[in-house]
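Internal ticket #5521
Category: modeling
Description: The requester needs a full-assembly model to guide mutagenesis choices. All entity lines are attached below as received. Residue total reported by intake: 979.
Assigned to: D.W.
Attached entities:
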Amino acid sequence: MMKDINKHNNSDVSLVTSRIHSENRSMEVVPQPISDLKSSGVYKKFNTTDYIFPDDPKAPVPQRISFEDIPNGFSSENPHEIGNPRPLPEDTHVEWYKTFVTSFRRAWMQFDTTYERNFKRFSNNHELWNQDRELFEKITPFNQQFHEDTMYRYDLTDTFGINFHLKNIVDDFIFNQMTYAFNGYKHRDIMAHFLTDNSGRVLQEISATNFFTYAFEHAFITLKEEYMEFSGSFFNFHNSLANTFDIGLHNIWFIPCNSIALGIYFIVWALCISFILNRTKYGFTSHTSNIIYIYTLILFILCFMLEVYYTLINSRYYIFNEWLDGIRGIIFGYIEFGGAILIIILLTYADRFASGIQGKQERIEFPFFMVVFYLIGYLAVTTKNFFLIFLALEIISFMTYSFLASYDKDFKIASSAALRYLFYSSLPAALFAFGIIQIFLWSGAMTEVDLATLSHSVVINPWTQAYEDLYKEYEARILVHEIPMSKFIDSSCDNPKEYFSAKGEVYPRQRTIFFPAESHLTNDIILADHGIGYLTCRMKITPYAGFHIDSILKQIKDYDTFKDAFNLPEIDKLNKFKNLSNLLNNPLTIAQLKECFYTDHHDKMHGMDIRMHFYPNYQKPTGSVDTIKAAEVNVGRFLEYNPANPDHQTTPTREQILHWQRVGKRELDWIASRYWDKYESIYFQVKADRMVYEAETLKDKFNLLLKNKKLPVIEGMVPYVEFCAAQRGFNNTFDYLTKINPESPDLVATSIVNNTDLALSRIHEIGVANYSQGTAFLVRDHSLFKQRVIPFIFLMCVFLINLTFYFKLHMPPVHSWALSIYNKAPLATVLILFVFMKIVLICTFLTLKFKLAMINSEIFSIISICVALSGITYAAIRNMSEKYFR
Amino acid sequence: MSKIRSMYFKPLQRPNFWILVGGFIVLGWIGQKVVETPFVEIGRALTIYYFLYFFFLFPLFGEIENNLAIQQMGNVDNKNPSQVLVEGVGLLY
């Protein structure tokens, strides 16, 4: 096996990701005689000291746990509270669990058959693979060279954006076909995963005809549903149009779609207003135009009513509360109204722009500038990206100062004012840029979504308080909870540091792998809440931490879950993670990771997840994939991290959580079914290991129950029992079972099949205890919602951003520094640009305060708004009262 | 803050403004350069001057020039304000 691994490591490094899967599939273990296995060292000698529980016959028998007794990780008191680590309601949780148990049974029943067959199919059968590949290349528009050139692209799903909730494996196949056709990526994975299901059965015979058929169905049906999920409804303009320019947040096709909607919307507004103002001016005097006029008015009224309903009345889409969101809806209404007014005025004063000032200067470019001005203002208000806010505000300032102030090019005073405005306005720009850059460096957040993520998670970098505490405490806690508590009780050691010292280990280790404040996926919540599968660990890569990327990768490479979690030094001798280390020694892999960190989607990369499997001291006897390969698979998934992929997203935002709550049980069941279909093979192994691990931890109790003829074991115990028999030198399972329970081995076999629930409940109990308690610590102590944790640097950034808006809104300094800028400009232009800029600033300020309020409090936000508005009022009064030299 | 808007009557601010403009341009150029020895020091110095100008020199010069102008206005009542300012500013030279 090791030879194979080395061979792979020396092979073409450009196939890292694909190789992971191929190796994974190739790890089928041919059944061998037990004696050979023992002599070859594949099986570790099973000592009684490896038993985690003491062999105490008086140990209490675990009681059956009902659903009501399951420790609930949710806070059912206020599930809508921001930062609630388990925001789903309790009844949903129980339903989740029932669904999970059902799915688990089904999955486990298929494990030893489906899983192995699937990997056998693609492990060594290269002919079959090549056949599929040739077939696939026939229907794709690219050749092999294209595939190789574009092999490593992380923005796989960016062609269509994120949030593709594909309903079944056929849709997955179609989706990846389409994606691959555009991006030329993951050829082998597509073929391996989507040409067949996990049992190797061919799901869909590919042909060019049905490919395009399904592709178009996907594009026009599924995407429409996705759009409606985003916007809530096609008529919810405020909710959908407001997100038009958030490229990273929504599908890319969302932008042209929304732009069309926006254009139609403006046209409707403009027509309505123009008809009201002066219908005869535009020639709408005929009978047909009157009909158009009436229908436009009706459409306008309908749109207005729907807007009001979906934004102000329907509270399902609120972000903070009805009050604040209602204000935001009103703001958007005014902005759209202003756009319509702008169009009307441009039409009305078109002659003047064309003729110029007193017939001397033609300024025909001004209508164009004003339209751009309006669109940029719309971008400033609606975007959720801080950098786009900065860019939009600066463009607005530049246009105002330069173009408007220098309207009359022959007037030197105006030109002088424009120049001074240009340079003086760099001060608030510098402050704003400094603020957002510091926030980005500190937390990796550049969008509202990132701030929402931060608000209920933990930021780890040398500047945060959580860094030291995590380093000192939480790491110990997670180890404490992973290591059975009985071990500490036996050692009479309360302090884990002393415990490790007593064991001869150095503690704490230098490590930069961080554990989650919250599981980031619904699917993860299912598994992790119920303690089966794995423990998802989050490594938050902030740009500050990114500076130390080499050391972080080294620590990832050196991280030994076996050793940390179970303190079994003999694991090192088995070189469990040698292949993992080799993988991370691969320079191409490192380059890929750095590329992830630095280049693509850097605004989304502040939270990366590494699924750390806390595998037991266990070598699966009959399985087809050992733990090393499973770990590699997860590293491979980490390497394939794609923020556009819904499965790779970071912590769910409040909006997402509310969405999940909204869609209800049907949606959850649907996601669960998708989950099991999609990741069947990978997580089968994980579940198997976890279950056998739990069985290992409880083996003495199981043995005790065996003796008492109460065998609360699960079907997964079959390989476990076989394993135990092999470890103890029995020739077969029957002999082993006969010895430990000589009276009725058949009863044992029957119990193995029939007593699933109890073992699942027990596993669930342990898992919930581990996961919920472990992850609750960080949230409780280090969540950004705790005011004491917010570091000074972040507050300073907020202050700088506030100062920027105060500066831009408090016009007296600018008026004092420069001359009057509106010399000889048309009154309409002055009014539009001046008033609209103030509106944009105030709206941007309000929305930005909303965003910042996700970390701070709403009270703080409201106070800041009041201070800003009062400052504006004071400045206006002071302007009026003072007498300047002219 | 200065109560005189025209730069013509601000003999202290006029050269500093053009220094600011130059620093503004040089800072934009520095931002494109690698973080190495000559550029780092130049950037630091210009950044210090940039914020010093806005937060310290600007109000200081404004107050000085205001006092000069008001002082000159108090001496001559019936003069044209522009003439007064020109005379007040002339005291600096």
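Resolution: model delivered.
Comment from assignee: Chain A has 41 helices and two strands.
Ticket closed.
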